[in-house]
Design goal:
homodimer, 226 residues, mainly alpha, Methane Monooxygenase Hydroxylase, Chain G, domain 1
Chain lengths: 226, 226
């Protein structure tokens, strides 16, 4: 049974990493597609969001199965709960990637603006944060997790820069289409900032998993509350 | 033991509802404070976000304790996992409320704009969605949960309306301060939309809790995977 648990735990980890890799790849692809105004590719990723949702449900079911069958405690329990939470973050990132793709479709019809490079740079950081947070989770590397949390400040600073540039450009803009395009870019910057927030959440789970919080077994068992 | 479990489950439910009520109240208060440009009140809520974070940690610890001690299965297990997820949503909503308060501080220094009424209306819907989603959870009322999910479309439509108005007004704006204020309002509308998304997530958990998904006990127990 212990060996079965270990096998299932390993499979759970692999499935979660595979979902993370998929989401990270899609983020990169959607940003590149938005840059080259490739509506077909954007529509493809929007259509295929259900795959991410299905993977999330599958991983959650795996977690529930492990909890019900193996009733893990201590670090094993914290591991499964951390996967439940990370799984949730990954699914939300998948939703945000779809939001970016939808904005990309509208940007493809809008005047070109030269601040797209900022968004690509933000996307690169967000992807690196996501990848590092999962590496930190797998290797229980608390200092790597701390580095992810620090990088979130970098991403936030870039988003602020984009927001300031948008305000300035909007004041110079002479058409509604230009203003609309600038606001869409601002929206993409916010989306990328949120992806960074999710990566930060994952990094925070690493500290939780490796250091643990006190689960008050004894008090609860000894004296019924009420 | 079963009675202890039931008591702990009830306490967990109460703690979660209390956190939900607190978050909902703060959202209402922050929007009202932003409307009357009450920076002191806004700062107060920003400072006190740590209370929400502490409640979230406490509820998560309760969940872990229950899982470790009582090793619930079937519907009881799904209940605890649903609380873990909802707890997460509530904490994120708390963060978004802080984001709104921070924007409110900047709006307090900016020129007044008459679209604030839209934001109050969006806030009202978001609060009602949050409240209904938790009512639906407590009473396992799937049709109430479905109504929450439908209301999210209403909220999204209002957000679109705000975005369109912002684009239009920005084109008429003649100062950077006015443009900045309009973009902040657009940001608040997006924040409220995200709160609606979290309420929708909670409503979706109700369907999951009341109908359940198949947790494949037998196959996993009978044949080790590899």
């Amino acid at each position: 049974m212990n060996q079965i648990f270990m096998r299932e735990r390993d499979r759970l980890k692999e499935d979660m990493l595979s979902l993370a890799g998929e989401v990270e790849m899609r983020l990169g692809d959607v940003l590149k597609a938005a840059e080259r105004r490739d509506s077909e590719s954007l529509l493809n990723w929007i259509d295929r969001d259900s795959e991410i949702d299905e993977d999330e449900v599958k991983i959650e079911e795996e977690c529930l199965k492990i909890l019900a069958l193996h009733q893990p405690v201590a670090r094993d329990l914290r591991f499964v709960v951390a996967v439940l939470k990370i799984n949730n973050d990954l699914e939300r990132i998948g939703d945000i990637v779809v939001n970016i793709a939808e904005k990309g479709l509208r940007l493809a019809e809008a005047p070109a603006i030269d601040i797209f490079g900022w968004l690509l740079q933000m996307g690169k950081i967000a992807r690196e944060m996501l990848k590092s947070s999962l590496d930190a989770f797998v290797s229980l590397d608390v200092s790597k997790a701390a580095a992810v949390i620090l990088r979130d400040d970098e991403l936030d600073a870039m988003k602020k820069k984009v927001a300031e540039t948008v305000v300035q450009r909007v004041n110079e803009a002479d058409t509604g289409a230009m203003t609309g395009a600038l606001l869409l870019m601002h929206g993409v910057a916010r989306d990328l900032e949120r992806i960074g927030d999710h990566a930060t959440n994952i990094a925070e789970d690493v500290a939780y998993l490796s250091e643990g919080r006190i689960v008050r077994h004894k008090r609860a068992a000894a004296q019924p509350q009420g």
